[in-house]
């Protein structure tokens, strides 16, 4: 049922009756008597969900990543552009994927250019369905720039000190193994020059090669792909040793099943998966009051399904996954008209943040997580091609060095808030089990829990990120007692009639949270309310009311 604000008064009274030590919270009680005590009418309250922390592990910055894609391969701005650097600083990602997606298969990272039209394998990539659309970007923008302008070396130079990790998507499609090995040698040298903030060099061996327009004519099956990349894997191990992590291209179904038992999979650390769902039709088929909860809860359910399916298809050869591209359904020109707030607003940010929380809770199964995509041109058009405008979290002018024209979406704002709190030196990430949570919409054959959460601990603060995907408030209690005395609470709402987001200039100081816009979350700073009135630390906190369809950050200090 609905939880009203005065429930807490009754809850606190009840805590003095129940054993504080047991902390076994009340279960769908009749609150008639307690309602009289707190002076309001309450029918009933839900059981308090218990937020139970798992074992903390060092933060993995690669779970806070973005796909670079358009920038540096389709736009003419350089990696040293002050607007681009301002965007990276503001969004505070833990990783970027260089050079991006499809174009990685026709890219030379040493010189920062598209490869010649006629490849060493005898095919012309400009005549292939998956790559022809990049011809103009190659010939009219990128390959006209001085050699090295968009190279991995230039990218690493400007990201050093501001970006913890990079996922290098290697061109194993149109370059031979010897050339790719020389690229790995370049990456090895760059890694040695970088600030030691990332535990690994992430090497992704190709992009979406299971799509005929991208894999053919070279890779007709996943087995042929696996046979041809063994030398590249060995080169990476020889040059980088234990400091590298290597992922094969994966895709649910026959492609991944074909990798099972191969030498390449045995030599790999992970397989990659991309996902662009839910679709417009999926969401439109639901009753109106179920659509926002469905989108808010989709990321957790989808990631669990990817992990489960990958493990089933690979069997005894199963390895962790890299989720190097994800967003909602954008394919086939399907803009998300089913929910206008999904574009640029809090709901889209929740969709992204939910997958981060899910990855933290499944950190042994998920090594890399990258949202598609970081930045698009301000007017969304380059060389008469209009991009999916709902995809990026930031926009910038194609005029050089104009940070004053850069914009951030509500999606980017929400996730940046989480990133600024979590992606810091010496942070520990903590899985959180939401015991006793009620359930909401069904996805992938299961009713999804209303609450999902993760915690991020530093020397002086602890942040709990709590998502409620349901249409009602849920009461939550942290099972762990605390020595902290203050709590800063910021809550982003996806309710109908709530915050639609949109676009806003970059904040003057991105470290001052929350930002002034485009979203306008509720924000408070107050003393922590404890169960007892003693001054003996650590103490048990009183429960939180987690608002319906909200993403809330509780930072204890």
Describe this protein's structure:
With 557 residues, this protein is α/β, with parallel strands linked by helices. Helices cover 27% and strands 24% of the residues. It contains 15 helices and 30 strands. α6 runs parallel beside α9 (230-240), α13 packs parallel to α14 and α14 (346-361) runs parallel beside α15 (410-422). The two termini are 32 Å apart. 52% of the residues are buried.
Summary keywords:
single chain; 557 residues; alpha/beta; 10-stranded mixed beta sheet; 8-stranded parallel beta barrel; 15 helices; globular; disordered N terminus
Q: Unreliable runs, pLDDT <50, ≥5 residues? A: 1-44
Q: What is the global morphology? A: globular
Tell me the number of strands: 30
Tally of helical segments: 15
Short description:
The protein has 557 residues and is of the alpha/beta class. The protein is built from 15 helices and 30 strands.
Task: Note the topology.
Elements: H1 7-17, E1 29-30, H2 32-38, E2 44-45, E3 49-53, E4 57-58, E5 65-67, H3 82-91, E6 95-98, E7 107-108, E8 113-114, H4 135-140, H5 152-159, E9 165-170, H6 177-193, E10 201-205, H7 212-215, H8 222-228, H9 230-240, E11 244-249, H10 254-259, H11 263-266, E12 270-276, H12 280-284, H13 288-314, E13 321-327, H14 346-361, E14 366-371, E15 375-377, E16 381-382, E17 385-386, E18 394-396, E19 407-409, H15 410-422, E20 428-435, E21 439-443, E22 446-449, E23 451-457, E24 462-468, E25 474-478, E26 486-493, E27 503-505, E28 522-527, E29 544-546, E30 550-556
Parallel strand pairs: 3-25, 5-6, 5-14, 6-9, 9-10, 10-11, 11-12, 12-13, 13-14, 15-18
Antiparallel strand pairs: 1-2, 3-20, 4-20, 7-8, 16-17, 18-19, 19-27, 20-23, 21-22, 23-24, 24-30, 25-29, 26-28, 26-30
């Amino acid at each position: 049922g609905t939880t009203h604000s005065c429930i807490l008064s009754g809850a606190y009274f009840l805590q003095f009756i129940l054993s504080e030590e047991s902390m076994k919270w009340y279960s769908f009680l009749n609150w008639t008597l307690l309602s009289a005590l707190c002076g309001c009418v309450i029918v009933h309250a839900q059981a308090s969900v218990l937020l139970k922390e798992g074992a903390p592990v060092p933060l993995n910055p690669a779970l806070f990543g973005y796909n670079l894609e358009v920038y540096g391969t389709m736009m003419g701005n350089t990696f040293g552009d002050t607007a681009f650097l301002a965007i990276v600083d503001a969004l505070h990602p833990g990783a970027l994927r260089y050079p991006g997606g499809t174009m990685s298969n026709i890219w030379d990272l040493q010189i920062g250019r598209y490869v010649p039209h006629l490849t060493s394998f005898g095919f012309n990539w400009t005549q292939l369905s998956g790559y022809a659309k990049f011809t103009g970007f190659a010939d009219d923008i990128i390959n006209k720039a001085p050699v090295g302008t968009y190279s991995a070396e230039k990218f690493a130079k400007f990201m050093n000190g501001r970006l913890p990790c990079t996922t290098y998507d290697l061109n194993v499609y149109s370059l031979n193994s010897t050339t790719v090995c020389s690229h790995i040698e370049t990456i090895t040298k760059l890694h040695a020059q970088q600030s030691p903030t990332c535990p690994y060099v992430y090497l992704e061996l190709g992009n979406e090669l299971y799509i005929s327009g991208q894999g053919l004519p070279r890779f007709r099956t996943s087995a042929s792909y696996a046979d041809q990349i063994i030398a590249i894997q060995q080169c990476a191990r020889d040059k980088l040793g234990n400091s590298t992590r290597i992922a094969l291209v994966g895709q649910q179904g026959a492609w991944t099943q074909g990798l099972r038992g191969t030498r390449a999979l045995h030599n790999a650390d992970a397989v990659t998966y991309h996902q662009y769902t839910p679709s417009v039709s999926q969401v439109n088929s639901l009753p109106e009051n179920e659509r926002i909860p469905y989108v808010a809860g989709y990321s957790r359910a989808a990631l669990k399904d990817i992990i489960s399916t990958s493990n089933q298809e690979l069997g005894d050869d199963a390895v962790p996954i890299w989720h190097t591209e994800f967003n909602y359904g954008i394919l086939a020109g399907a803009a998300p008209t089913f929910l206008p707030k999904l574009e640029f607003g809090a709901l889209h940010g929740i969709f992204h943040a939910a997958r981060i929380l899910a990855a933290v809770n499944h950190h042994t199964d998920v090594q890399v997580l990258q949202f598609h995509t970081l930045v698009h041109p301000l007017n969304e058009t380059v060389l008469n091609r209009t991009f999916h405008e709902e995809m990026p979290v930031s926009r910038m002018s194609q005029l050089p060095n104009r940070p004053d024209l850069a914009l951030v979406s509500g999606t980017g704002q929400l996730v940046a808030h989480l990133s600024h709190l979590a992606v810091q030196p010496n942070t520990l990430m903590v899985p959180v089990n939401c015991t006793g949570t009620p359930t909401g919409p069904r996805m992938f054959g299961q009713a999804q829990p209303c609450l999902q959460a993760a915690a991020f601990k530093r020397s002086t603060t602890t942040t709990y990120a709590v998502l409620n995907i349901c249409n009602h408030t849920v009461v939550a209690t942290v099972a762990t007692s605390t020595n902290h005395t203050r709590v800063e609470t910021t809550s982003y709402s996806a309710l109908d009639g709530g915050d639609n987001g949109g676009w806003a200039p970059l904040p003057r100081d991105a470290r001052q949270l929350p930002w002034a816009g485009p979203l306008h979350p509720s924000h408070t700073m107050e003393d922590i309310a404890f169960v007892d009135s003693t001054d003996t630390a650590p103490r048990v906190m009183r429960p939180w009311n987690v608002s319906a369809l909200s993403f809330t950050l509780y930072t204890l200090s």
